[in-house]
Predict the 3D structure of the following.
Amino acid sequence: MKGFRELVTDFSLGKISENVSFQHLTSLKIGGVARYLYEPDSLDSLMIAYKYLKSHQIPTYVIGNGTNLLVSDDHFDLVLIKLTKCNGFKPLLGGEFMVEAGCQSATVGRIIAKLGFSGSAFMAIIPGTIGGLIYMNSGAYKKETGDFLYQCDYLDGLGNLVSLTDGFNFSYRHSIFQEIDCLIIRGYFRFPLAPKGEDPYQTIIRYKELKRNTQPLNEKNAGSVFRNPANIHAWEIIDSLGYRGFSIGDAGVSMKHANFLVNKGNATFEEMYRLVKLIQTDAKKYFNIDLKCEWKILNKEG
Ligand SMILES: Cc1cc2nc3c(=O)[nH]c(=O)nc-3n(C[C@H](O)[C@H](O)[C@H](O)COP(=O)(O)OP(=O)(O)OC[C@H]3O[C@@H](n4cnc5c(N)ncnc54)[C@H](O)[C@@H]3O)c2cc1C
């Protein structure tokens, strides 16, 4: 791992920081420390560095904005990769766009709407990066990332560049990328022109208002914690179990939206994880429903 630090500094491949807390990298503000945080200055630098990491079997983890992540309080002996500077955005012909994985989804959604294309409003209200959106197949208000993506470039488990144009296996908050060892570097999206008389930006304003009114945006959270089971909202199940407002230590169920768990101060991983498990156990016991966690959990067990 020491050799990796030298590689990055000797060849100016970006920024490397040591012992970085996940509390500064996640929206829940929970988690231990990563041995190294590597932020490449470009995709070219990333490709060199990633090839090195893979060929030396150095453990890695990719993080976007950490808005869908619950991290344990451990010390992680790995290189955390954050694509802060890999944020190129290029309009192509006919409503097509190349977007690097480190781009902010909200910015991309707003620009595409401003350019007169329909469908990107959901992106404008999700606080993740494009890499995170593709990986999670994130979505809102009946639109999801997979509806618009037609090509994705990623680095595979050997550090080789792969371009995928089908077989994305998109489903509710799922993509092929969750099944393979990969680092998404960019996506190619296609959006239809907005019909005459429609201002796509107005949709963003409406969605933002809806979010503000229904979600605890001023509290530390990581979005919806459970996927909605078929025919019922997860929040209805949590409400029926009486958990709205319930806490374990500083980990609590939001008063505003029962499918949002919030860090009310200095919640630990242990407290938040126990709360997730408690709700799942009771949903099974009282309603025979398997509530699936939407968050990604990073702990020593992998
Ligand atoms: C207030 C709030 C509201 C939200 N609203 C919504 C919503 O409406 N709809 C919705 O779907 N989600 C929502 N979310 C959840 C979250 O914002 C999305 O899932 C988002 O896409 C995660 O992006 P990220 O960059 O933060 O990913 P992270 O949380 O950093 O990572 C999530 C997973 O993606 C992987 N990943 C990230 N980047 C890459 C990459 N480049 N290559 C490979 N893997 C990668 C990570 O390893 C991790 O497993 C919300 C979250 C918050 C805090």
